[in-house]
Every structure is written in structure tokens, then in C-alpha cells.
Write a structure and sequence with these properties.
single chain, mainly alpha, 2 strands, elongated
């Protein structure tokens, strides 16, 4: 088996100066130039292909839509800028939506509808109102009803005879209370917090 000795060819190994701690030779420029040219060609070809595909799609859509008219022209609304909020316009819109027959499209996520529902419930729960004027029945506030129940107690219902339970049946048990009432939504809590901040803010006179 023959061995190759670099000293036999007459070439001495190149001595590397490692005193500076880094490679002193420059990067090859040819590879960088080839990469940049290839990248430019790829971008150009991609742009041409995208432009051609866009033209084909546009021509097909124009053929399906028919000839252009004043009804198909795009209007540039940028010169109008941002329209300022007009209270009169908002009131007019609210009046129009109230006159529009039901069912109406909601103007928000339904938060205001829940607030209005709870407000109507609060009116019935916290105030006196007629339940049946002809029979003289009146709704009373919940707090007053609780006071009367605490004083007088609840009426005892008459005992109802029940049929004997079948095999495997159990007498139903009702967990009391069934509900603790409705909970305020996050939207209502935010409104209440904002109202509390506004009422606690000192008035400024100009």
C-alpha cells in the first residue's frame, strides 16, 4: 500500500498567520454577484407572471360583468375625509329606526337591548305599578314584598294527595333558590362605572 507524502511533491504546506485571531482572506465576490443576479431575475419573472395572471382575471371579470356604466364606476371617497359626528343626524337615525317596523336590524351587539330590558325590569321590581286596574291589583317593590313576607309569612299551600311512587322512583327534590336573578352584563358595569366617574367629577366653569 503506497502512501502519499506532501513533502515528496516538492510543495510545502501554507503557513497560516493566526496571530490576529480571525481569517484575513476576503469573501469571494463572484458568489454574491451570482446570487443577486439570480434574485433579480426571480423577482422580475414573478412580477411578470403576477401581472399576466391579473390581466387574465380582470379580462374574464370584465367579460362576465358586461360593459362599464356609471353604476359600476368606483367613487373615490378619500377627499371627503372623516365625517364629524352630528347629534342631529344621530337623533334622526334613531327616530327613523324607531318608526321602522319590526323586526329591526340591531345597531350594536345587542348590549343596549339588554340594558333596556334590565331597565324595564328594574322599573317593575323597584316601583309601584298597576297589574290589573279593574281588579285593583297593584305590583309592589321587591323590598316591600320581602318586608311583608318577613312579617306575615308565606301562605301554606294545601296538601295535595300524590299517587304512590312506582318502583325505582324517588320524590323530586327542589334546590332553593332556583335562581338568584339576572346579573349585570359587562357593558352595563362599564356604563355604571363611567356614569359614576362623570358624577364624581367636579364641574368646571368657563
Amino acid at each position: 500500500m503506497s502512501t502519499h507524502n506532501p513533502h515528496d511533491s516538492g510543495h510545502e504546506p501554507e503557513e497560516v498567520d493566526a496571530s490576529k485571531g480571525f481569517e484575513q482572506s476576503d469573501v469571494g465576490e463572484r458568489g454574491i454577484v451570482v446570487f443577486l443576479i439570480s434574485l433579480a431575475v426571480l423577482v422580475a419573472v414573478t412580477g411578470v407572471l403576477a401581472y399576466g395572471i391579473g390581466k387574465v382575471f380582470h379580462a374574464r371579470m370584465a367579460k362576465e360583468d358586461g360593459p362599464r356604466s356609471k353604476w359600476t364606476e368606483t367613487v373615490d371617497v378619500r377627499p371627503l375625509g372623516n365625517l364629524a359626528a352630528s347629534p342631529e343626524l344621530q337623533n334622526k337615525m334613531a327616530e327613523m329606526t324607531q318608526k321602522f317596523p319590526t323586526p329591526r336590524v340591531q345597531t350594536d351587539d345587542g348590549n343596549q337591548d339588554v340594558v333596556d330590558l334590565h331597565a324595564r325590569e328594574d322599573l317593575l321590581l323597584d316601583n309601584y305599578s298597576w297589574a290589573d286596574r279593574a281588579q285593583g291589583k297593584v305590583r309592589i317593590p321587591v323590598e316591600r314584598a320581602m318586608e311583608l313576607i318577613a312579617q306575615r309569612g308565606l301562605p301554606v299551600a294545601a296538601t295535595v294527595e300524590q299517587a304512590p311512587l312506582l318502583t325505582g322512583d324517588e320524590k323530586p327534590k327542589v334546590a332553593v333558590p332556583l335562581t338568584s336573578g339576572f346579573a349585570r352584563t359587562g357593558y352595563e358595569l362599564d356604563q355604571a362605572a363611567a356614569k359614576k366617574i362623570d358624577t364624581g367629577r367636579p364641574e368646571t366653569h368657563q
